[in-house]
Structures are given as C-alpha cells and as structure tokens.
Amino acid sequence: MSRHKKIVHENEPVKFNKHSHKIQALKGFKDILPEHQKFWNFVAEKVKDTAEDYSFQKIDTPVLESALLFQRTIGEETDIVAKEMYTFTDKSGELITMRPEMTAPVARAYIEHGMISWPQPVKLWYLASLFRHENTQAGRLREHHQFGFEVLGGAEPELDAELVIVAQGLYKSFGLEAEIEINSIGCSTCRREYIKSLKKFLRDKKVCETCEGRLERNPLRVLDCKEKKCQENLVEAPQILDSLCEDCKNHFVKVLEILDDNSIGYNLNPYLVRGLDYYNRTVFEIFTKSQTEDKMALGGGGRYDYLIEQIGGRPTPAVGFAGGLERVIIKIRELGFEIKEEGHGDVFVAQLGDEARKKCMKLFNELRKHGVKTREAFNKKGLTEQLEIANRLKVKYALILGQKEIMDGTIIIRDMESGIQEIIDLEKVVPEIKRRLLGMNGLKVYSEKE
Ligand code: HAM
C-alpha cells in the first residue's frame, strides 16, 4: 500500500470503510462539552461585565474575510501569514481566509461602516473563534477563541494604559494574577533607525536557521526568538528603548506613569516585539505567575496606528488587546477554582399519571411565563425518579401533582433542601412560588409582573 495520503478531490465521492474510517474532530480542533461550558460561561460573563464597565460596545464579524486583509496587515513574513492561515479559493475564484485574528477585521468594519464619523474613540469588544494552522500542543490549537478590546480613533497614552489596566483587572476577575510585560517598539521612523543598528550588530553573530531568514526580512523578530543561540546574542544587542524618538519616548513614559499611579506592576521587556507586524509604540503581553518553566502568553496587545490606513482608511490611531480563552480556562482549571454550575432551575414540576402530566405541562408554561426557571421530566413516570432529577438539577422546590391532588384541587410544594412538604391550592401555586423565590436570586421580575 502506498505510504502517501490519498488526496480526495472536492467532487469525488468518498468511499467509506466503516472499520478504517473513524471520523473524528480535526487535529487542533476541540469540542466544548456540556461539562466544560461552565468555564466558558464564567469567562465570557466576566469579559462582558468588564466591557460594559469600560463602555466597550460588542462587535461580531464574519469568520471568512478576503485573504488580502490579513496579508496587508499582519505581514507577509510573519508566521501567521507565511505558514498558518487557512486560505482557499472559493467557488467564485476569490482568495478567502478564515480569520486568524480579530484586529484587522475590526479595523475593516470600522472603515466599512463609517465609524470615523462616530464620537471618537470607538471602543469595541468581541469574543470570537480564530483559525491558525499551528503545530498543536498544550494551549496551542488550530481553532482557538479570543476575547478582545479595541479602541479606534485615539492616540493618547491614557488609552494604552487603560487597556493594560482593563487586562490586569480582567485576569484578576478570573482569579488569575497577571504578569505584564511591556515595551515600546517606536514609530516607523525611529524603528527604521533601530533596525539598521540591530542588523549591523547581528551581522557577524550566529543565529538559528529561522532567524537567518528573519535577519533580512524582519530582524525585530530575532529579538523574541526562543532559541538559546539567538538569546545569547541579545545580552549585548542595542535596545530599542534607546532608539526611540522624543515623541515615542514621551508617549511610553506617560503610559508607564499612569500604570505606576494605578499601582499596576509590570516588567519592562526590551525584547518584546509581538508576532504581528501592525504594531507600533506600546506592545504588551500577559502571562501568569507560573511554577513551571514554560511561560504561556494568556493575552497580548498594543498600539496599531498605521493599520487602518494600510487597509484604505484615513490615518486613525488605535490600540487593542486580546486574550486566549482556552489558555485562561487551562489556568483556571489548573488552580482548581470552584465554578458554579449555570442553568439550574428554581422549580421542578413532577407529575403522577396522565391527567397530572397534562396539568403539569400547562403549569410548566405558566411558571415560565412568569419568569420562574422551571424544569421537568415529562417522559418519566415514577416519583422517585423525577425527584432524583430535581435533586441533580439543584432546584429549590419540587411541585408534585398526583391523582389525589387533582381531585382536591391542590398541589404539593416540597422544599428540596429540608424535604418539608406542604399542600396548597393549585390555583395559588404560581403566586406562592413567586413570593417564595422573590429576593432569593434578586428576581425582580416576579414583583414587576404581579
Ligand atoms: P496574539 O498574541 O496572536 O494577538 O493572540 C492573543 C492571544 O490569543 C495569545 O496571547 C494567546 O493567549 C491566544 N492564542 C493565540 N494563538 C493561539 C492558539 N493557536 N491556541 C490557543 N490560544 C492562542 C492577536 O491575535 C492580536 N489580534 C491581539 C490584539 C488585539 N492586538 C491588538 N488588539
């Protein structure tokens, strides 16, 4: 048998051998199972709360974009564009890319929807899935999710600092202590000068094979190469902070002053350059304090004052930040935080017999109409079985309706914690349940409707 993988063409019928073709999720793509949803909900809720506190508005953009959008902004020489993009020609012959990041799509939307005429800066946030064909390993997926914040149309250093503060507060709300690394990579003018001196310095130095290529095309990336060979050179390399022009220096000093004023700790890392080409001035990355050697970036961001112009907009300064959801969840789970299960109800309706089931279906809808989180198991017949489900769902009360209660026009209310049961008029059960639940979960809705 040939050792080469057979390539199946688009329109060729695929013959499945049910024994040898086990269809599974693609490498680097993950299902998010029900038991993991509570972590996702927890993180998403914190992100949403933070976004609202800082007046960010939500934006969603399509998964597919023109390949040009990313080639022009992230940079042809970056790993993402050179090796990792899911790019294909669609049926109308257009070159399409599955978004590998969200900053460029948000910038495209800013231009396309004339946000330049909105009050500036425009503050947007998102939670999105992204696609990068990376070598998979723990915390490195081919589909991952990011939460992100972008501030478009503002050049002030206060905005850079605010994003670092937002990021730090957000990780804290996840229960994680953020370690912030920060640097400035200057503007196009002072960076050009720095690159010249860096190239000169590296000319007779030994660098790894990848960096040999980078030296010509993107020498800044040599600075954050993890290879020992390259790192050893850097001790004596010129530092970008020494090459900053007056304006860039003042901008960066102001950012750091604001962080100091707000007691935000950070490490100045003169080798931090980030893996995307669109940045200028402030760049930062978030790590968590880790016992292990392997530091894993939980988020990163920076200023990107040229990006909007690069894709056809008017010159518009901007700054942003995004964090990796899966990586945050890995850390939260490692630390073993208890996270409350979501989606449990307040009341369970249990029924015994056909007639009771009919009445309970109506009652179920009635309770839901009044905003009561109600659960059921109408396919089950036995009471024990139904109460077991009610228990699992951690509801506060079970309402039990059997033949006797139907005849009497009553229903049983069982407090699931204490096991105490009371009989009340069926007619009064909805207001009674609302009265009991009122104030328990801050359920304002009950008092408003009654
Ligand atoms: P990035 O550093 O490429 O920046 O990604 C941000 C974060 O997403 C990373 O710090 C990491 O936590 C997570 N991440 C990235 N790639 C993967 C992956 N393959 N698997 C799992 N998690 C991953 C950006 O994408 C910029 N757009 C951030 C930004 C927003 N800059 C300005 N505004």
Work out the strand percent: 15-25%
Oligomeric nature of the chains = single chain
Structural class: alpha+beta
Taking strands numbered 1, 2, ... along the chain, how are they ordered across the largest sheet?
A: 1-5-6-11-10-9-7-8
Total helical segments = 17
Unreliable stretches, pLDDT < 50, 5 or more residues? 441-450
Q: Helical residue percent?
A: 25-40%
Enumerate the distinct ligands.
Answer: histidyl-adenosine monophosphate
**Mean pLDDT across all amino acids:** 91
Q: If you compute it from the alpha carbons, what radius of gyration comes out, rounded to the nearest whole angstrom? A: 29 Å
Main beta-sheet strand count, sense and barrel state: 8 strands, mixed
Bulk shape: elongated
Give short descriptive properties of this protein.
binds histidyl-adenosine monophosphate, disordered C terminus, 5-stranded mixed β-sheet, single chain, alpha+beta, 450 residues, 16 strands, 38% helix, 8-stranded mixed β-sheet
